[in-house]
Every structure is written in C-alpha cells, then in structure tokens.
Design goal:
170 residues; alpha+beta; Nuclear Transport Factor 2, Chain: A; six-stranded mixed β-sheet; disordered N terminus
C-alpha cells in the first residue's frame, strides 16, 4: 500500500516513493524551453564526450547519486565519473528516449551503447559492446543541476563486458 503525503512545496498529494524532502521549493527560475535547451546542450556534450561541459551544468556543490560512483559531491567528482565512462568506452553513445519536466524536476530516460576499449573502474579493456537503459532524475535550481539520481543496471554492464557471468535460467 502506498501512503499519500502532501508535497511540502505545492500541497499536492505525493506518494511515499517521492522525494521525502525537497530543501528548495521556490520557482524553478527556468522556462520549459530553457530546460529543454539545457538538456539539448547536454546531449550534444555527451556526443562530444565533453566531461567538463557535462560537469559544468551541475551546481558547484551539486550532488549525483549513482550506482557506478556512489554519492558524488561537487563538480570535480562529477566530472571524474564522466571521464571514467569516456575512457572506458571511447565510442560511448548517449540517446535521449524521453524527457519529462515538472517544475524544478526532470526525468530523463536514455540509452547508452559503447565498446569497452579502455580501463573502466580498474577493469582492463575487453573489446565487448554494451547496451543499457538508464533513468536520470534531476532537480534544477538557478539554471543548474543541484541533484541527480542515476538509475542504471551496472550489474548488466559487468555481465556484458564479461566480468560477471549471468546466472543460467532454470
């Protein structure tokens, strides 16, 4: 059973699975068009594998919660994880499948493909291809990303590069 709670900012109902506390509840300060422009620029930065540009879209004290990097605080740590992916998969391709905007919150559904040709979290290159889906949840403030939660099947990546074996069905 899902409990329904009141959102502290809007007073609208929200489920117990929603973010339990949002420290900033003011206006987003960006139009929907500006938000879409930000994410179009981010997609271009992904295509260019520009870790610095991607990190600069985060607030200086921004936070990213990720299955691959844990809790990352600040642009330098966020940029470091982008670089880990771009070194491990120099042909990494990022595709936005859907972008949903609700005030200061954005949900992005995406797909990654690439070839493991460089070191990746200490793993030697395997030349194997990966493909994975992702969901990224953002909170924006003053035109920057202040919080990002990445939902990725990292175990699936490890299976695809051959580090782990899939459990046989049955």
């Amino acid at each position: 059973m899902v409990r329904v709670l009141a959102d502290p900012c809007s007073g609208r109902p929200r489920s117990a699975y929603s973010s339990p506390n949002r420290p900033w509840c003011g206006p987003v300060g960006m139009t929907r068009e500006q938000i879409f422009d930000l994410f179009n620029r981010r997609e271009a930065a992904w295509r260019a594998r520009d870790a610095h540009q991607l990190a600069s879209d985060h607030a200086p004290d921004g936070v990213v919660v990720s299955p691959t990097g844990g809790v990352l605080e600040g642009r330098a740590e966020i940029e470091r994880i982008y670089r880990v992916w771009f070194v491990g998969f120099p042909d990494l391709a990022f595709t936005t499948e859907d972008l949903l905007v609700d005030g200061d919150r954005v949900a992005l559904l995406c797909r990654f493909t690439g070839t493991h040709l460089g070191e990746f979290f200490g793993m030697a290159p395997t030349s194997r291809r990966i493909e994975l889906a992702g969901a990224f949840i953002y909170r924006l403030q003053d035109g920057l990303i202040v919080h990002e939660r990445r939902i990725l099947d990292f175990t699936g990546v490890l299976i695809q590069v051959g580090v782990l074996r899939a459990k046989p069905a049955g």
